[in-house]
Amino acid sequence: MTETSSPQPSETPENVVGNQEAAASSRPDVLLEQLLKPEVQESLTTLVDNLPKLTEMLTVMTKAYDFGKSVATDPVLAEDTMASLSGFAKPITTTAKSVASAAIEAGDRVHVQGDQAQIGVFGLMKMLKDPQVQKGLRYAQAFLDVLNERDQQNKR
Length: 156
Description:
Blueprint: H1 13-35, H2 38-49, H3 51-72, H4 75-113, H5 121-128, H6 131-155
């Protein structure tokens, strides 16, 4: 027992065209209803009053966008920026690599010496004459002074 499907009344070509026309005719009605609302009319009035300002803002924003786009896509500017950044970063990375290398080497020396190398009072006094030790001690003293000043300010 097989049934043949026949188009439903709402699916016939005449009804489909009729539904589209009804929807099209109801759109202007909905639009008119929206336009008749007082808050929509106020918003439209405000928008129309501010159109010169909005146009000016849009012009400025368009110029800014065009400038940003030209800067972002300029290969010469990008190359110059990268060169200046690398010129700025190179001394920092060189110093960081040097300090890291010295720290690793010092750690290796301490590990090799183990507990065998003890520092006595005379060894400490000899170390105090070393310019690098003096520099480190001055840095430590300045660092502790800054921490002390900040601690005093926070207590107030």
